[in-house]
Design a protein that fits this description.
single chain; Ribosomal Protein S5, domain 2; lpxc deacetylase, domain 1; 2 domains; seven-stranded mixed β-sheet; five-stranded mixed β-sheet
């Protein structure tokens, strides 16, 4: 079953990177996921990606909206295939708690209206840049992830049942390293990050309590699902592989999925 919203809902907060107030309204729609502001609109689609530096930024000539991946992940998790997202204030999706949890809860609070949707066949594809790999193939809604960072984080790897998205993936927060904070903020990033919306790792390990022993790995899967949804199609019945991936590779996989589906539609 796939859905649109029954009612309009509003959410506000500060941007993870710009630290500025942001306010969005999510409206019912008949087809597709679209961002709009003051009469200008564009679809949530890889063709409108402007940057993948530490987040996924969408935009056109009139306006841009940053850090869309957590909201897109929540929309995928709720099987929402049509939603008009009105940007009322700001240029970044609110960070909230740094995961997809509060977005998902907002979507559920709006109520869901069933909407007929014909899911396309899932192609078999791999994209790679050096040791970073993302791949998709037909499967039973599972994801394998692998990350490798310097100590104390080290290696995390695991396979997840995406049918348990709300329990296993959705609550995992964005993460960062304490020693990077000064450099990130000097670059205009992480201005709104704090211990309430990010898992922080210091030289000894967790600087604040994790929600899962492997929370960074799970958040990487959360991001990958959000970026993949920019292919323009709601996909189900697939297996996703994400090895040390970032937003650039996630968007590239979305692009290749879209192009592959277009060849057999």
């Amino acid at each position: 079953m796939t859905y649109t919203l029954k009612n309009t809902v509003e959410i506000e907060g500060i941007g993870l990177h710009n630290g500025e107030k942001s306010r969005l309204r999510l409206h019912p729609a008949e087809q597709g996921i679209t961002f709009y502001r003051s009469g200008s609109r564009f679809p949530a689609h890889w063709r409108f990606v402007k940057s993948t530096l530490r987040s996924t930024l969408l935009g056109n000539e009139e306006f841009q909206i940053n850090t869309v991946e957590h909201l897109m992940s929540a929309l995928w998790g709720a099987a929402v295939v049509a939603c008009d997202i009105e940007v009322m204030e700001g240029s970044e999706v609110p960070a909230l708690d740094g995961s997809a949890k509060k977005f998902y809860e907002l979507i559920q609070s709006a109520g869901l209206q069933p909407l007929a949707y014909s899911a396309p066949l899932v192609p078999t594809l791999t994209v790679q840049h050096e040791e970073k790999v993302m791949a998709i193939q037909p499967g039973n809604q599972t994801a394998f992830g692998y990350i490798h960072f310097p100590p104390p984080l080290g290696v995390e790897a695991g396979i997840f049942d995406l049918r348990l998205y709300t329990q296993e993936i959705m609550p995992a927060r964005t993460f960062g390293f304490l020693h990077e904070v000064e450099a990130l903020r000097a670059a205009g990033l992480a201005q709104g990050a704090d211990l309430d919306n990010a898992l922080v790792i210091d030289e000894q390990g967790w600087h604040n309590a994790p929600r899962f022993p492997d929370e960074p790995l799970r958040h990487k899967i959360l991001d990958a699902l959000g970026d993949l949804y920019l292919c323009g199609y709601y996909l189900r019945d697939f297996h996703l592989t994400a090895l040390k991936q970032g937003h650039t590779l996630g968007v590239e996989l979305a692009k290749q999925v879209d192009l592959a589906i277009a060849t057999y539609k």
